[in-house]
Amino acid sequence: MDYYIKFQRLFQIEKGKWLILVGLVALIHLFCQSLMLPDGRAVLSQLPDQKNNVLVKGSESSKHSSVKVLVVDNPLKVGESNLDNESLLVRGVKTTKVYNVDGQDDGSGLVEKEKQEKMNGDGMDDDFDFVEDETLGNVNVDMEEGFRMQNDSSLSLAQLAKRSSGLVVSKAETSKILLDKSVTSGSAASSTLVVSSAKPLLIKSVVEKKTQSEVSTSDGSGRGASFIRINGTSDGEGHLLLRNNFASSSNSSSMSNKPVKKKMRCEMPPKTVTPINEIQQLLVRHRARSRAMRPKWSSERDQEILRAKLKIENSPILENDKDLYAPLFRNVSMFKRSYELMERVLKVYVYKEGNKPIFHQPTLKGLYASEGWFMKLMEGNKHFVVKDPRKAHLFYMPFSTRMLEYTLYVRNSHNRTNLRQYLKDYSEKIAAKYSFWNRTGGADHFLVACHDWAPYETRHHMEHCIKALCNADVTMGFKIGRDVSLPETYVRSARNPLRDLGGKPASQRHILAFYAGNMHGYLRPILLKYWRDREPDMKILGPMPPGVASKMNYIYHMKSSKYCICPKGYEVNSPRVVEAIFYECVPVIISDNFVPPFFEVLNWDAFSVIIAEKDIPNLRSILVSIPEEKYMDMQLGVRKVQQHFLWHAKPVKYDLFHMTLHSIWYNRVFQIKLR
Fold first, then answer.
1. Whose CA is closest to 484, among 670, 356, 244?
2. How far is Cα 361 from Cα 309, in angstroms, rounded to an integer?
């Protein structure tokens, strides 16, 4: 009996210990989950999903909220319905999420779906902006800093509202918001809002920071209230309604879901426009007031450049030069004197650092051939290049942005930060190895790059360098008076870059205007909208079919037209400008904010027509209004300027190689600063 009592007491003690141990494990489990789940809702996570309506009301605690939910008048009319009961207007700045609006409630709930990488320096490139006004299919919602979604967990709409503005969540009848977590490879979790097609959504402005209390509680009538509500229906579907001091309307309309394509910056008009006359004023202003960094210590090379500058400014008046056509230049006397001094004085050191194929491996064919031809001819030049960097006035960094993209860019990633980091590491390497970069902050260093991404890839770490860029956009960091607008040349034959040169004389050009090409960017579709098949003397076409015959037909039209239309594509630059000159056709440049090649020395009014994008509807009337005598002068100017836009296997005087190097030299001469 004593043994039985002792055994029973021992069993009770051991049972108590086990209960304590199980309780501790449960508490640790809940504590760990509270660290991972939003708002520490570990207990709720253990409960089954609730299929309920959700009503999000403003409580007393929300009166001092920094977030206000707004509804404004619908700027775009959709069907016959009003914004009051059909539209959600969203606008944002920083964190970007994409919500997919599905036509049916399939029970998948609210699934966050990642559509973008990080932007501007920390992840995602800055070529992507988003359309603010679109009928929702896939909706780009940009949340402000005070209204961010977290990537580590999924939030319901009600939870999001509560987090952002202190709103209280109450449960209602039959429809539902479900949470589901979806993680894609290499990216954060994301979520998708599933909403009935019975109530369409419209995007513009959702969140506005406020410092005073502007979110009040609802009295149930909907008046004087600001709340988000999912109304239940008999079939279990839900409607999303955003209200602010408006009564809800009883009428509804259905609309089929149309997917909204995310638009990049290059697919939308620029936010600011700098006319060509203002670009000219900027050039004069920057010439008079240099912004270049002062050298940390002076050198004999600086003194040689200053003496050259003085001689250029006091150059003798040039008359009837056999090699130069005076109307083509802003000041032919200064250009002539500067060119002579470049040939006599300039010395360039080419860095040997850098591995192929990004460095020292030029591409001589295709759209980006300009950077390749310059690299080939510069590295092989014996007149300008010196082996001793102490004798150099300028320092060349021989990399190819085309090969950089080809080698390092992950296709369809929309992330170019690794490309920029690669060039940053290179600049830091030469700065650590040589003293020349640190002396001027890179102001006497230059690069030649024709890829569209070059402005982004060379930003910040090469900010003080002289950049010869095909993408010469004044709104994207191009510095007038320091940087050089590089001609984008489409070279069809690396062995013979001058193949098919020339065109018909002016008297035999019977086509008023010609354009054919792909529909890149936002501008070219506008051009075709107004002028395709409208006038018999205007050959405004879309993409040419593939094949040799098509290419020859394209060249024939260029050689037979008075004016060749050169609209921008994805970026401001276009190879058609040089193509037009190549085939002796007067280029008509339609590209706001574009700085034409060699703008610091050439007078583009003498051999081209520059038209603002907004004037495309008046294109024909502008061209027809040009007097025949003026056209003949411009066509002569095209033939005379042609020599400055040609590549040669062995460089010749005033050709494209020398013109590029001269503009780099010329800008350095007028930008240099001494103590």
1. 670
2. 34
